[in-house]
Design goal:
Elements lengths: L2 E4 L6 E5 L5 E5 L2 E7 L2 E4 L9 E3 L16 E7 L2 E3 L2 E6 L5 E7 L2 E17 L2 E4 L12 E8 L10 E5 L5 E7 L4 E3 L11 E9 L1
Parallel strand pairs: 5-6
Antiparallel strand pairs: 1-2, 2-3, 3-4, 4-5, 7-10, 8-12, 9-11, 10-11, 11-17, 12-15, 13-14, 13-17, 14-15, 15-16
């Protein structure tokens, strides 16, 4: 094991190699980066598999718009609810969506299947893993492709967007050239499935 110290009165930097084979860069006694055979870990995070850069489990957000301060891949259990009344229950085997978060940008994909409903009315809300930014510029569109809608509703009749400052996709009933009504939920019946692709900013 070798240790190279370059300390100053302000805390300095320590570069060391420990018995596990990690190389650590420290500032004021705390790890700034950890290097091993799996890649680079930021802060106290040490890479444990694969090759690449490991970000902390909890984001250390930067106020600099040009700093990449987070990367995360994962899945979450989505929900589908109604803005007015009634319930939509998803199939427990087909309710998991996948997401990738790179800095402020989040991409969500996957398929949901409806197991049962109870008099659903209003806008259909599909949950997202992170809350969107708080102001109007963070509103965005989302793609939802529906199958087996009730009342012979056309599969391409939905109008879908992601509001700002919320963690959900809103699905309205659409017409040829505008938003028709806020009661798309009435067409969601048992057996409906929907494919989702959405990219937004937090």
């Amino acid at each position: 094991m070798s240790i190279l110290n370059a300390l100053t009165s302000g805390g300095g930097i320590t570069l060391s190699g420990d018995t596990s084979g990690n190389v650590q860069i420290q500032s004021a006694g705390a790890n700034s980066a950890v290097f091993n055979s799996f890649g680079i870990g930021l802060g106290n995070t040490a890479p444990t598999s694969g090759l690449g850069i490991a970000f902390p489990a909890t984001q250390s957000a930067s106020s600099d718009a040009n700093t990449l301060d987070d990367y995360e891949e994962g899945t979450y259990t989505a929900t589908m609810t109604c803005s007015t009344s009634g319930t939509i229950t998803l199939n427990t085997s087909i309710r998991t969506l996948s997401y990738t978060k790179i800095g402020r940008q989040v991409t969500v994909t996957g398929t949901l299947n409806v197991d049962s409903v109870s008099s659903p009315t209003g806008v259909v809300w599909i949950s997202l893993p992170f809350t969107t930014g708080a102001t109007d510029p963070y509103q965005s569109a989302a793609i939802t492709s529906w199958n087996n809608l009730g009342s012979s509703k056309a599969a391409n009749s939905s109008w879908t967007y992601i509001p700002n400052n919320l963690s959900r996709i809103s699905v309205y009933d659409g017409t040829v050239n505008s938003v028709g009504t806020s009661n798309f939920a009435q067409y969601v019946v048992s057996g409906v499935d929907v494919r989702i692709s959405a990219t937004y900013f937090v």
